[in-house]
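Entry, Tuesday afternoon. Goal for today is a structural model of the target with adenosine-5'-triphosphate bound, before we commit to ordering more compound. Inputs were pasted exactly as handed over by J.K., no edits. I checked the ligand SMILES twice against the vendor sheet because last time a stereocentre got dropped in transcription.
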Amino acid sequence: EEPEVQVEKHRYESDISKLRSIVIHSLYSQKDIFLRELLSNSQDALEKLRLTSLSEGSYLNLDEWKGNITIEARKSGNGGQLIVRDTGIGMSKSELAKNLGTIAKSGTSEFLNKADNSSSAGIDGSNLIGQFGLGFYSTFLVSPSVKVSSIPPATADNPKPVQYTFESNASGDEFTVYADPRGNTLLEQGPCGTEVVLDIEDGSGNEWVLDNKKLEELVEKHSQFSSKFPIYLRKTVADDEAATDGENAHSEGWVKLNKKQPLWMKNPKSVSEQEYRDFYAALDPTADAKTAGWTHWKGDSGSGVSFRAMMYIPDKLPEDFWNKGPGVFRNIKLMVKRVFLTDDLGEDYLPRWLSFLKIVVDADDLPLNVSRETLQNNKFLRQLKRILVRKAIDMFTRISKDEPEKWEKIQKTIGNAIRIGMVESDGKDRVKLAGLLRFASTRGESVSLEDYIENRRDGQKQIYFLAGVGESAESLARSPLIEKPVARGYEVLLLNAPADETVMAQLGSYRYVIRSRMSSQRKLKHMLYRGLKLQDVAKAGFKYGDEDDDAKEKAELEMQKKAFGPLIEWLKKEFRGPISDVVLTNRLVKSPCAIVADNHGWSANMQKLMMANAREDDPMLPMMKQMPKILEINPRSPLIEGLLERVHDLPQSDDVDEDEDSDSAAVSDDERELVETVQVLLDTAMIRSGFMVSDTNTYFDRVESLLRRSLGVSQSAKTRTDGVKPAPPVAQDTLPDAEAAAAATANMGDMSGGVGFEMGPDGPQFMDWQDLKSKVSTEKPGGDQSQLEDLVEEAVSHDEL
Ligand SMILES: Nc1ncnc2c1ncn2[C@@H]1O[C@H](COP(=O)(O)OP(=O)(O)OP(=O)(O)O)[C@@H](O)[C@H]1O
């Protein structure tokens, strides 16, 4: 017969009904999160009781209290019930209705309006849960009807509380609350608590919920950190192997699941490498995730909050690392006294380039139940942000010093992230990060700036580098631009990662402000890396540092300067515009000439990079492309000597005046021919130095005319253009339609959108160049206006050789 129970019927608020159905639909593929949500609610309830009983002491009968959670699968046939109980703070009748049937969070309707306009399909349900506190509704993912019975602790005002039950179906928009007809059954376990009963139906596809093995797995996966209160699983006849487990023999059918200690609470000295690795695997949800290195420390925020933290480097970057925009990265788990608080510390809490790290921070003193907004204003968290960045850089530095081989590998994975970090960081960090990078060089495959400095030669005041995106180190090493330094035994870094030149430029120049009482002056200075200037060998300003040592050499140079003076003058006069200066080279051995960028212009490599990513209306582009370049000629090259002779043979302009008119015409023909030939030489040098010729068609016309001359073919002879066969008529046959064709290529991936990519150890790595570029051009220390200003101040005298 029906027990006499007064059942109160409630209607869910309309917002709740909607949110509930969004949660159910959007999380359809992640049903197993329901257990995590139930366990975290129980942990919260236990923790709340512990804290309030400590501070207020207003609850009665708590002397014997033991906080725990039990999970029990009761099978009947293939279906059954899953029961999760805790001895936490419980809920009164009105709390049941309020906590489980309404939403206190603000912004709900706003959110729902948005969700209505788009479609609920694109909404991330797990976000929703965090945002609105909807965790409980995830139970409907596996159960058509859910009962929650609860009893709060006794107080002076309410010495004999009554157990109530909340009941709701997954469909329908009603719930009921009634006094539990079974009586205060929960008091058998403790002074108060909550029990959640999920009906699991045979044939619903959710029978796995009743499988103990699966339940154990899920607890391991989601709740092993919240090990403050024990979680027990009821063992059944089917898994009676558990009964022979000595440790649990006394627990009479209950197996403790979360036996692990929170690792971060331990003294780092007592933690084994394997423990660190296992912990990482639990921290990173990606399949077979491994870590490449870690750090574990105990700290103090400076504002008096002490904390313990662990920071891990994964062995590969997250798949979406290069594609993701600004956002909440959820790579930091914030705990307060062992209880998980949040992994949502706000947008870009850590710089994006560090978002690959996995971090656990356990603070000793933070309010539980703080909202995201209050968290963002929290002093500790603001301080923590800086601490974490510093710790990350320290960790990298330590590994690179103590375990160079390990770092070598890590650096290959995260090197590009570090490069971005350099662009984003300021002076001090930038230098530290630069020290972490490894480059190819003319001496070795993996050279750090420190190694380079060790190997520098007497008097050398510059670190030489040559950049060429995507070119192999071997081909860079053959560049004419470094013929001589390499022949002389100087080391040159060969940079081929896309960001290399940008970061070197950033490292090499640094804007700082000089403030005095009288004036505030801005000045851009080359920042030195341990006293050495970073010198792009594709740019002017290259020096060995021993130029003055050798008197003989100096005298020879003076002589050469004099001897080649007329050629230099003639070249300057004829090619003014594209060529800003002509100098005797200090870097060529065999090549007759080379073209380098002005110290403040774009190198050939940078020009290519910028062109590949520029918007068409970018005003910088034509300007930088037209930036005058410097022609370096090699006085030892027979070609240059021959050129000098030809220039000598040209009549001086006053000679011309004395000559007959007919003669003078012949002479300027000669000169015109010479100009044409030299133009071809220059264009070829441009190409060899990595630039593009400004007009390929004209270039080839000139080459053709040169070839005709050398073959003795008339310049005016025309190519026959008749007899070109016309195309057949328009095709009549049908091709497969576009949809079918698209389906066939659907798996090829999208590589559009200004994203550059390069092959990393784990396949292509995407770099957001648009972003990087905007940094380069907004911060301006990399090679633009601010440097142009500086050009006046720091004009390098090229014949100072
Ligand atoms: N086992 C429990 N014991 C006591 N109160 C509970 C329990 N489970 C849920 N509650 C109450 O119901 C409320 C709603 O729970 P729900 O899981 O929907 O959201 P939440 O826990 O507040 O937020 P989130 O899901 O993001 O953790 C909780 O805030 C809590 O007050």
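The chain has a mean pLDDT of 80.
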